[in-house]
Design a protein that fits this description.
Number of helices: 18
Structural class: alpha+beta
Largest sheet: 8 strands, antiparallel
Family: Belongs to the oxygen-dependent FAD-linked oxidoreductase family.
Helix content: 25-40%
Distance between the termini: 37 Å
Pfam families: BBE, FAD_binding_4
Organism: Xylaria hypoxylon
InterPro entries: BBE, FAD-bd_PCMH, FAD-bd_PCMH-like_sf, FAD-bd_PCMH_sub2, FAD-linked_Oxidoreductase, Oxid_FAD_bind_N
Protein name: FAD-binding PCMH-type domain-containing protein
Low-confidence stretches: 9-32
Bound molecules: flavin-adenine dinucleotide
Oligomer: single chain
CATH class of the largest domain: Alpha Beta
Length: 497
């Protein structure tokens, strides 16, 4: 059933006024009285109920593991629809969650059951005015990048075409352009946010809430639109080389990455490196390691960055060039690639942010990955991500100025454990596997703190792991939470408290 709000309001209220029907439809008529909700919404808003095509599309997710339980989807067409839905849900004690790209996978989201999904899909505009763009709360990365590119502009977005701007951005947001400009959240200038009370507020750096929206923003409201800094495209050319390596190159590869690309925490401004290892039995019985070296402002990657990897003896190499818009296709982040599909797989990540590669730990992790995926074929589709984005723009922003706590970390590492959902036994094996891989890397850091990028988090981490160990950070988040969301309505995505 896919209907505009007004029609649904009429039909459900008619059914619910029939006493007999109301009895067996009681969940719909009382708890989720969609008619009463629909009456409050604009004519362009949509409501999807379970079983409809719209509902299936709105609730399908990148990961099918420990997902939120949705009884009803509201698709706002104007900002006030978000506010009305929140007020309605509060009055009826129904939980709610915002969804944009559907790539959130933290298991804390599953604490929401029998709730309303506010699907931001219709709030997807991109309006450009000189050096600022106003972007709708549900706009996806591809729409943002392509609209800006057509106007000769760019901003920092996540790399994947199918995640939203704000899903990543409210937790910091890493992307190809962060070396020049900082994180996605560092681009925010002002935003309209619907608070837990249902009040619509426009905030900018003068608001006490601003600090929290740049790193812990999922906890404080639903952003209906955000103004971001945009920049003239300076370098339209991009180039890449992709290497594959076999098992005997593990030490050499991560040593090379440390020495030649990480460069003691000052990697080149125009180089991104990204890779993973995974099983590809056609190429080798052991996992294959893929590495992309991507250069901005070049039609071929400068050999000073790639020679060490050629010298190591890759199994295969490939090269290519194009524009910024081509990068997602090269690395498999485009809308047609596997990571953008919602195909019912359970996908869980166990992230750790680190300073540099501990080569022995990478070997241990690789060997464990090999062993477990061989002995447990259900986990064979898992992979192990390692990402090295440029850092200058991120580190240029004072750490204490935003809730994003880990500007001093250099690399994002994340085992991604993937399986076809088939019961708790395999789920338990999967989570044990992910935790063991992360533990190896954690021990290899020699540090007491475990930093886990909130947007990759599994969900068993602590607020310290997501938002920083400093007491002042935790206290500030708690103070803001008590002020803006005292009833903990926004507590399903890495809750601060
Ligand atoms: C394939 C893939 C690629 C990724 N690439 C990157 C990357 O390049 N860089 C990076 O930093 N991260 C990346 N991530 C992680 C990503 O930041 C998170 O998965 C993020 O939650 C995805 O946002 P979404 O809108 O797609 O997901 P959703 O599930 O729609 O949203 C996740 C959460 O964000 C909140 N939310 C969404 N929209 C709003 C809004 N308008 N207002 C308030 N809250 C909102 C809600 O709490 C929601 O539960 C990637 C993840 C995947 C699976």
């Amino acid at each position: 059933m896919e209907v505009v709000a007004a029609v649904l309001a009429w039909s459900i209220s008619a059914v619910c006024q029939n006493n007999a029907a109301a009895q067996w439809l009681s969940p719909l008529c009382t708890r989720n009285n969609s008619a009463a909700l629909a009456n409050r919404l604009s004519s362009g808003a949509l409501i999807y109920s379970p079983g409809s095509d719209g509902f299936i599309q709105a609730t399908s997710r990148w990961s099918a593991y420990e997902t939120p339980g949705i009884d009803l989807v509201v698709v706002p067409s104007v900002e006030d629809d978000v506010a009305q839905t929140i007020k309605y849900a509060n009055q009826n004690n129904i939980p709610y969650i915002a969804v944009s790209g559907g790539h959130g996978a933290i298991i804390t989201e599953s604490r929401m059951q029998n709730g309303i999904e506010i699907w931001m899909n219709q709030l997807n505009t991109v309006e450009i005015d000189e050096d600022i763009a106003r972007i709708g709360g549900g706009a996806l990365s591809k729409a943002v990048s392509h609209s800006l590119w057509d106007a000769g502009k760019q901003t920092v977005t996540g790399g994947c075409e199918c995640t939203s701007l704000l899903g990543p951005g409210l937790g910091g947001g890493h992307g190809l352009l962060q070396g020049r400009h900082g994180l996605v959240s560092d681009q925010f200038i002002s935003m309209n946010v619907v608070l837990a009370s249902g009040e619509i507020k426009t905030i900018d750096k003068t608001s006490d809430l601003w600090w929290a929206m740049q790193g812990a923003g999922h906890n404080f409201g639903i952003v209906t639109s955000v103004s971001v800094k945009v920049y003239d495209v300076q370098y339209s050319d991009w180039a890449y080389e992709v290497f594959t390596f076999k098992s005997d190159k593990v030490e050499g590869l991560y040593d090379n990455l440390n020495v030649h690309l990480l460069n003691n925490g000052s990697p080149p401004l125009n180089i991104v490196n990204y890779g993973f290892f995974m099983n590809d039995p056609e190429l080798d019985p052991k996992p294959i390691i893929y590495l992309w070296v991507i250069q901005e402002g070049a039609t071929s990657v400068d050999s000073i960055y790639t020679k060490p990897f050629h010298d190591l003896g890759p199994a295969t190499t490939d090269i290519g060039s194009g524009t910024y818009l081509d990068v997602p296709r090269w690395v498999g982040w485009d809308n047609d690639a596997a990571p953008c599909q919602h195909v019912g797989l359970a996908n869980t990540r166990f992230p750790i942010d680190i300073q540099s590669y501990n080569v022995q730990s990478m070997r241990k992790a690789y060997d464990l990955f090999t062993d477990v995926t061989k002995k447990t074929p259900e986990l064979n589709g898992s992979f192990f991500l390692f990402e090295g984005y440029p850092l200058q723009g991120v580190k240029a922003i004072p750490s204490e100025s935003t809730a994003y706590a880990f500007r001093e970390d250099n690399l994002l590492i994340s085992p991604v454990v993937s399986w076809v959902p088939s019961g708790s036994d395999v789920a338990q094996k999967a989570t044990d596997f992910g935790k063991r891989l992360r533990q190896i890397l954690y021990e290899g850091t020699g540090k007491s703190e475990l930093h886990s990028y909130v947007n990759y988090a599994f969900g068993d981490e602590t607020p310290q792991n997501w938002y920083g160990y400093e007491q002042h950070r935790q206290q500030r988040l708690l103070r803001l939470k008590n002020k803006y969301d005292p009833d903990r309505k926004f507590s399903f995505y890495a809750p601060v408290a």
